[in-house]
Every structure is written in structure tokens, then in C-alpha cells.
Amino acid sequence: MRRTYAVAEAALREMARRRVVLAILLLLPLAFYLSRRGDHLGQSIRFVCLGLGWALSTAALFSGSAGRAIEPRLRLSGYSGRHLVGGRLLALWTIGLLLSTPYFLLVRFDQHDVRYGAIALIMALTVAVSAPFGLALSAILPRELEGTLVLLVVVGLQMMVDPADTAARALPYWFTREIGTYAIDHTDRGYLDRGLLHGVLAALVLTAVVTVAWRVRQGPRSHLEFVPLR
Amino acid sequence: MTDDAWLAALTGELRRHQVGPDLTAHVVAETAAHLRDSGEPAVRAFGTPREYAAAVADSVGGPDPSRAARPVGPVRLEVRGVTKRYRRRPVLTGVDLTVRAGQVAAVVGANGAGKSTFLRVCAGLTRPDRGTVRVYGRLGYCPQDGGTSEFLFPDEHFALVGAGRGLSRPDARREGRAYAAALDWTPPRSTQARHLSGGTRQKLNLVLARLGAPDVLLLDEPYQGFDRGTYLDFWHEVWRWRDAGTAIVVVTHLLNQLDRVDQVLDLTRAEAAA
Fold first, then answer.
1. What UniProt keywords apply to this chain's record, in alphabetical order (chain B) (predicted)?
2. Of B38, B53, B68, at which residue does a domain stop?
């Protein structure tokens, strides 16, 4: 675990030093929230969750890209994919939880007659999904611009497509609409169960994609054999 | 500059020119005696320490000849039949290399001859089309660029890489700072890597490759951006690591050090032969 924590600590330090980026990340969900607060309180909750997702996945994308320069060296220095991917995910999840907390408190004190526990669940799942989503994009797409454009498309689609459409379930944040409906409109528990299942599956699948992409890019090479010295 | 400071600088310059410790002590003692007897300032009598050391090194015939008798150890890096094509262009064709503990191999060749590709194949960062690489022990790698994190301080780099090597944070920091001092560099405590000059960042890169004393060191033109003094310090360190039993592969296009390495792999010739 020491190596995983070392990677997580380094990733947290890297992100903490990008102060302008952090400020934008912090304010982006607020802009989403305020955009619909005047006319539709419930919709503003859904939007703030999507804003969180966008901000965190963008942070993960840039964090993954920043790690590209040093990760080959770390791999040769004794780190495995478990340490490198796990450490970066740990850092991003920590930042995600820190970022989500003020927004949960905002909803808690600004909105009434909603299920707060379900909203906390949406935010937790959003954090869980966004970190591997951004890292997966950084692993698959070598340039940040391409990854950012894909993120833009995904979040845009997430806002526009009809959540009842089957294809909408392929989007990583579909669960926010389902659990959001349960939390805001007080629908039956089926919405919560479907959303929870979707969120957990999305997080697992995206984490698997990150792991596989890492192995393809930097995993063990069949031509290279290390013979330990005793 | 006082005579004492001048003599200290001369000692450092002679070391950089690979003059052995006995001969260095002798030259410095002789020079000090001359200065004492003549009463002349050192700069007027001998010029700058750098000029005088170069003249001494020339007159005694280069590096310490006792190095030639060094024993070499067991095989540490074994490369067999490495072939690599980029699209349809062959870059490496059946390249072999064996480096033993206590040896330095220089990889030379024209631009595009595949020097960096060869090192990346050895480090497992690039897959060859054919061939095998066997590394005995632990591997350190210094890329031509990159290899550092833009937003971390040097000490944080030492701690991060050191943790992978099993070093505690204080040990990694101590070791990193000691290697940095050998390159005449004191790492700043709170300067992010992106704010270091190109040459200083390469020093950080080199120190990170050496951290944890790996058995095999792969260095891809690590001296880019170094000033002359640091360049000489770098080669001095290479000889020191070699004497300590490390197997070293250095990619270089500077031929003036080739007479001091144990073997030369010329990828230009390999490509032409293919």
C-alpha cells in the first residue's frame, strides 16, 4: 500500500498546485446549479451533479495526461499498474469527495422536500465514475484536446437525450437522472435500484478499461526478462 | 580568487579530467610549492584552474591508466537480435549487445538511426518486432526528455521514485541530494520541475535514474543542456558508477568520450549493413 499512497500523494500535490484549474473545477458545478435554480429547483440538482461529473472527469483526464511523462520511470522503479492506477484513482476520489461536500451542503440547505440521502448517493457515484472515466479517456486518447472534446460530447448528450431511451443507458451518467428522479420527484424505489446498479456498473467497467489500457500501454513486455540478483 | 581557492578549483578540474587521485595530489602539491616559492598569484602563474587542468591532463595522457586493469563482472544486460520497424522502415535490424557489470557501452549513430528506440526496447517501453532483452538485477533509465512531473519539487521526485525502490522518504531524499551534489547541483526545496532550466531538469532526470543504485543504467543523451563543467562531472560519475560495478549504456552522438568506454555499438553501421 505504501507505493499506492506515494502515487496518490504525488497526484494530490500535482493537482493542488494547479490553483487556477482547481478554482475553475470548484466553480463549474456552481454555474450548472445556478443556471436552473431560478425556474426549476429539481433540475438544478441534476445539473449540479452533471457539473461535478464534468469537472472531475476533466480533472482526471488532465491528471492522467500529466502522469504519462513519469509513469514509465515509475514502472521501472518498482511500481506496478495496481500502484499507479490505484494511487491516481485514490487521489481523484479524494478530490472528488472534497469537491462534492460543499455542493451537497448547498443542496441540503437550499432545497426542501428532496431525499438528501439519495442526492448524497448520486454525488458519491458521480465521484466514483468520473475518476476512471477521465483516466480511461487519457489512456485511450493520447492528446488532451481530443479527450476534452469527447467529454464535452458525452456531457452534452447526457443533458439532451431522453433518459427513457435505451441508448441513454450507455452514457456514464445515466444514473444521475434515475436516482435524481427518485430523490426529487419521490418516485418508487425502482428508480433508485436501477440508478444504483448503473452507477456501480459504470464505475467498475470504466475502472476495468483504465486497467486494461494501462496494461496495453505500459504493462509487461514479452521480449524483456528481469532476472533478480541474489 | 585566493591561492587556496584556486588550488581547490584545480583539484576539482583535474578530477573532471579523469586524472587519478595520486597524480592529482602530486600536481596540486607541486603547484602549491611553486606558488609559495615564487610569491606569484596563481592566476598569473598558471592561468585559470580549468586551463591548467586541461594542460596537465593533456601532458599526462588523459584518464587514470590504472582504470584499464579493472576487472569486469558477470553479464548484466543481454540483448539478442532486436529488430524494429516503424511503418515499413527498418530502424533496428538484428542488434546484439552484451554489457557486463563494470562496463560502459556507448550507443552511437546518426540522427534517426534508432539509438533512443534501442534504449526504449531495452527498458521495455517499446516492443520490438523481434528479439529479446534480459536484464540481471534492477534497471535505471534516464530518457532524453520527460521522466519528471511538472508540478513536483525535486525532493518529492526523490521520495516518489525512492518509494518504488523501497527507500524511506529521508533515505531517498538523502541519496538524491548526494547524487545531485556530485553533479554540482543543490536541488531547490520548493521549485517545481517545470520551473527548472533544461539542463537542471536533466540533472534531476539523471539523479532519478541512479536512485536506489540499479544494476543496469540506460542513459539516453542525459547531458543535454549541461554546461561544460557538469558535462565533465557527468562522465566522472559514469566512471565512478562503472567502477562500483554498474553496467551502463549511454546513447551519445559526441565522439570525444568513445575512447574511454568499453564498447561501442554503432547503429549507423548496423543499419547500413542491413
1. ATP-binding, Nucleotide-binding
2. B68
